[in-house]
């Protein structure tokens, strides 16, 4: 069962009705998602709206370096993950009934505005790097204006992996999904190559060759090949990475605010929320590096 948290929520947060809709629609595609059974908006039953979906019986990993696997298994799993997000971005969203699931076009502009507002609504302290990012991002939006279904939080820990095989059997946690720019979604996923485990569930600084995991450039090239892109301009890619870090920092700040006012069910929410400043600082250093 998937339900909304109780208590005060930020605008548009935890929209389980949208999550139910997108998972149900993607069940008609080649993207691995659980089967859905029913959605209930009657809050009197369990306290909030909820939906019921199939249980995906598999493995769940948190560390993208995948210490539980050997190099061959890591290589195979990361290649399958790359294939899954490429398949998602290749889905004909009109054909599966999601033409009105979001607004195609101007995604970065709208998202920068949205997450700037969300950040201000949940701000608990001044973070100078976030203030700088709020100013820098709107002035540096890329010209590419593609649209696809975007997951919004496509991380390793939102994937269920087959019990014995290195392949994804279910993508979970679609509450931030919409129609948007595929590079925003993919760069958010690729932050694992830019952030350390300490900063936020990343693997920056790892010996990728020894691990059997493709380096960032190779991983991006595989995605481009699978989605029919000739490549991504370096400046465009860096903008996308910075945007994704900004967005993550805003999300973490929202978690911090919920922990502060006591509406988070996650015992570790306060610790996760404190990473907002850390991620924002990393993002601003990226800006300074690329100029």
Structure explained in plain terms:
The chain is mainly alpha-helical. It has a single domain, classed as Aminoglycoside 3'-phosphotransferase, Chain: A, domain 2 (Alpha-Beta Complex). It is 46% helix and 8% strand. The chain has 11 helices and 7 strands. It has helices spanning 16-26, 71-90, 107-122, 128-136, 182-190, 197-200, 208-211, 216-227, 234-261, 269-273, 275-290, and strands at residues 2-3, 36-40, 50-53, 148-150, 159-161, 168-171, 178-180. It has a 3-stranded antiparallel β-sheet with strand order 1-3-2, covered by helices on one side. The protein has a two-stranded antiparallel sheet with strand order 4-7. The chain has a two-stranded antiparallel sheet with strand order 5-6. Helix 4 crosses helix 11 (275-290), helix 5 packs across helix 9 and helix 9 (234-261) runs antiparallel to helix 11. The radius of gyration is 18 Å and the shape is globular. The N and C termini lie far apart (46 Å). The model has no long low-confidence stretch (mean pLDDT 93).
Summary, kept brief:
Helix content is 46%, strand content 8%.
Topology:
Layout: E1 2-3, H1 16-26, E2 36-40, E3 50-53, H2 71-90, H3 107-122, H4 128-136, E4 148-150, E5 159-161, E6 168-171, E7 178-180, H5 182-190, H6 197-200, H7 208-211, H8 216-227, H9 234-261, H10 269-273, H11 275-290
Antiparallel strand pairs: 1-3, 2-3, 4-7, 5-6
Helix pairs in contact: 2-8, 3-9, 4-11, 5-9, 9-11
Task: Please name the defining characteristics of this protein.
46% helix, mainly alpha, three-stranded antiparallel sheet, 291 residues, globular, two-stranded antiparallel sheet
